[in-house]
Write a structure and sequence with these properties.
InterPro entries: MFS_trans_sf, MFS_Transporters, POT_fam, PTR2_symporter_CS
CATH topology of the largest domain: Growth Hormone, Chain: A
Membrane topology: Multi-pass membrane protein
CATH class of the largest domain: Mainly Alpha
GO molecular function, one term: transmembrane transporter activity
Number of domains: 2
Shape: globular
CATH architecture of the largest domain: Up-down Bundle
Low-confidence stretches: none
Protein name: MFS transporter
Radius of gyration: 21 Å
Family: Belongs to the major facilitator superfamily. Proton-dependent oligopeptide transporter (POT/PTR) (TC 2.A.17) family.
């Protein structure tokens, strides 16, 4: 572990993290309401139809982000793409206040389009703010990831509650206002020029290999996370019924994010002062992921109250796993990509996740009937990738050492 000399995060870190937090609050709050709105008294849709529309809405995000990345990198610039996306997304949230299917489809389309422009370009510009101090990339993206988790918790709590307690229109209006507020820090932030950054010494072939590994890792991790979540959700529902702890059902569903907060803070502080290999962090993440699923696996299919602590311990391990993987994937992509095309790369990074999710989705009926199967797949998948990363880290270190000797 190497001590970092330049430990200062820039003001852009605060601006971009605040923007992402507000945007995620708007998006997740909107998402928490939209199915309820479709099946409510206004539109009176069948639940199956509403979930089908929601599935198309979520799936189309991948393709809109590719369009947004292309526009940001090649045509209008990343900063303008973020601002444009934020405004369009806000208009989309406001459009759902129109009490008709026309308002619904218009709103969903604009949210998808706006998010497509917003997400890859803000990831790109945030990463670029660290390209002259790449050893802080891991810490920086962990701050960014913490902002995402805070935003999602805030959005679901504030907008979800407001929409259900008062009216769905109130929730959608709050979502739109938060979205407009999110672009204010971007407007006053610095624009980044790709020509200003230090040129890395890593060969092109090594850069491509590292990025390909990241693409595989991101798809496998979120794919495994999704199928294992079936068992986690099942346990959440059961513990909310049998636990003597005074915890609401909604809090049981977000309890994992509560552990993510302190773990993120520890990682941010540690990685701001000390640097270790990014692939080593990924390896640690997958090992802890395997341990987490292993702990979950020992909980019987029908748990008792005595298994509550075991379940919470597994969530702590899963939180450690997530923090060692999710922000680090973005950090590696930023470090080894060409800054001119970083938004495009960030948008393409969502494709493996979507592809693997579709593959796993073919077996959803089996996984829902047998949630323990998802855990078995998770344990094997996490262990195999973890071992592979150990091998790659060892090979990487050996080739670097041989290069220094020659």
């Amino acid at each position: 572990m190497e001590k970092i000399q330049n430990r200062k995060h820039s003001i852009e870190t605060f601006y971009y993290s605040l923007t992402r937090m507000l945007e995620r609050a708007s998006y997740y709050g909107f998402r928490a309401l939209v199915v309820l709105y479709m099946t409510g008294e206004t539109l009176k849709m069948d639940r199956t139809e509403a979930l089908s529309i929601y599935g198309w809405f979520a799936g189309s995000m991948v393709f809109s982000q590719i369009i947004g990345g292309l526009f940001g990198d090649l045509l209008i610039g990343n900063k303008k793409a973020i601002i444009f996306g934020g405004i369009i997304q806000a208009i989309g949230a406001f459009s759902l206040c129109i009490p008709s299917t026309t308002g619904l489809y218009l709103g969903l389309f604009l949210v998808v389009l706006g998010s497509g422009f917003f997400t890859p370009n803000i990831l790109s510009n945030f990463g670029k703010s660290y390209l002259n101090k790449t050893k802080l990339l891991d810490s920086g993206f962990t701050i960014f990831y913490l902002a995402i988790n805070l935003g999602s918790f805030l959005g679901i709590s504030l907008i979800g509650y407001s929409g259900e307690k008062f009216a769905y229109n109130i929730g959608f209006v709050i979502s739109g206002i938060l979205m407009l507020l999110s672009i204010v820090p971007i407007i006053i932030s610095k624009e980044f020029n790709s020509e200003e950054f230090e040129k890395g010494e890593t060969s092109i072939s090594k850069r491509i290999l590292n990025i390909l590994i990241v693409f595989i890792v991101v798809g496998v991790f979120w794919g495994i996370y999704e199928i294992s979540n079936i068992r986690i959700f099942d346990l959440q529902m059961q513990f909310s019924e049998i636990s003597a702890w005074n915890i609401s059902k909604s809090l049981w569903q977000t309890i994992g994010s509560i552990f993510t907060l302190p773990i993120s803070l520890v990682a941010i502080i540690l990685w701001t002062f000390f640097y270790s290999s990014q692939f080593f962090k990924l390896m640690v993440g997958f090992i802890f992921g395997a341990i987490s699923f292993g702990v979950l696996f020992v909980i019987p299919e029908i748990p008792t109250e005595n298994h509550t602590i075991t379940y919470l311990i597994s969530l702590v391990f899963l939180g450690i796993s997530e923090i060692h993987i999710a922000p680090i994937i973005l950090s590696i992509s930023t470090k080894y990509a060409n800054p001119k095309y970083l938004a495009i790369l960030m948008s393409l990074a969502f494709l493996p996740t979507r592809l693997i999710s579709l593959i796993f989705g073919l077996f959803n009926h089996k996984l829902y009937d047998n949630p323990m199967l998802g855990l078995k797949i998770g344990i094997v998948g996490m262990t195999v990738v973890g071992i592979g990363l150990i091998g790659y880290a060892w090979w990487n270190k050996k080739t670097t050492y041989n290069k220094e000797l020659s």
